[in-house]
Amino acid sequence: MYDFILKANPRIYSWVIFMNRLCFFATLLHFKKKSFIFAFATELHLKLFFIEFIFIIMILSKKILPFLVLIFSTLVLFSSCEDDEDPVIPNEEEVITTLTYTLTADGQPTVVLSFKDLDGDGGNSPVITGGTLAANTVYEGKIELLNEIEGEDITEEIEEEDDEHQFFFSATGLDLAVAYNDTDGTNPVGLQTTVSTGEATTGTLKVTLRHEPSKDAEGVSDGVITNAGGETDIEVEFDVTVE
């Protein structure tokens, strides 16, 4: 209906504004008289005001609409890019089905302490094998970890993320001490150790792997688990005899 306004010369818009203001003042002058002029001026003023309003809206929409479309498209693009970003997944505790602790010493048979739980969280109990160590002997210890369900070498993952892992060793009833032989550059890890036996004893050796321990906490670098925190990836208690 008002397409002609947009096609017309800008003078038409100026005329509309002028006549609208004129009718408005005429309405004010004849407000108290309620005369025919008042009624005519009021009606004309309203019509011209409506035409002016439509004119402004149509002009603004032609100028602003492309800008609004650009803003909306940009927002959609950024939203899409954010949705496409891969979420940051924190390192999870390792799935470990097999742990072997191999101990070797000059002139002594190799001792392998092992843990196997090949069905993972299944109903079968793990198979734990202890061993016998010679008294007053120094052994070199090496720990290897596997996830045989997925065919993964967890030892390599521990080596790659050594600053986020640490083994702890606790002997009960044994004359035995374990010392770290490896570090993450600053703090111990425990894949490589030295095990020193004393007099003949019988007891247990507990091996615990902590994920993201507080390595700077008191006693942790000395192998004391009390203040380590973190999550336990695996904990195994081996029956050991020193003779």
TrEMBL record:
Membrane spanning residue stretches: 12-31
Transmembrane helix recorded as keyword:
yes
Is Transmembrane helix among this UniProt entry's keywords? yes
Kindly state which keywords UniProt assigns to this record, in alphabetical order: Membrane, Transmembrane, Transmembrane helix
Q: What is this protein called?
A: Type 1 periplasmic binding fold superfamily protein
> What species does this protein belong to?
Bernardetia litoralis (strain ATCC 23117 / DSM 6794 / NBRC 15988 / NCIMB 1366 / Fx l1 / Sio-4) (Flexibacter litoralis)
